[in-house]
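W.,

You were right to be curious about this one. When I first looked at the sequence I had no strong expectations either way, so I just let the prediction run and decided to look at it fresh. Below is the sequence, 172 residues in total, followed by the output.
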Amino acid sequence: MSSAQLSVLVGKNFACIKIAGRANFASSPDFKTLLNELVQKSFGHFIIDLSECVLMDSTFLGVLAGFGMKLNLKGAPVGPGVELHNATARVSDLLENLGAVHLFKLTNGTLQLPADLKACTPESINPSHEQIARTSLEAHQTLMAMNPENVARFKDVAQFLAEDLKSLEKSS
């Protein structure tokens, strides 16, 4: 299954990440690694350009929600530190239904970026099956912790992922 292509523009304390394609479990470890690296480099404001994101699964959304929660806890300057730009109706509905929309500022229209941005190419960590399972489990645990209504939706998925991860850890 093909996964999302990530491209990044950075400026002073600011990063814009464009997600093109299918934002799914396979691209989630790379996305999570990228976000953590940008935070470690003291970036505080993020725009996630979703204009070319055709699909977002629950794992990717869980990683995104976890990041939104983490940044909001750190005290973003004014409101949410993560702006989701040009999310499709399907992605917006998913954010609303899973109780994650409050973590983000949703914007639409032409993206206005500062002129002094530079492109950087995120490297894939080529995640193993174990890394994908761990990221998926953590993402679903985040969604369940964030909104009690999500427990019924994801408890079976989380249980399967936990068993899969345990099996993978034993065999490695």
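Here's what jumped out at me. The longest strand covers residues 45-56. And, maybe more interesting for your project: The CA atoms of residues 89 and 95 lie 10 Å apart.

Coffee later to discuss?

I.
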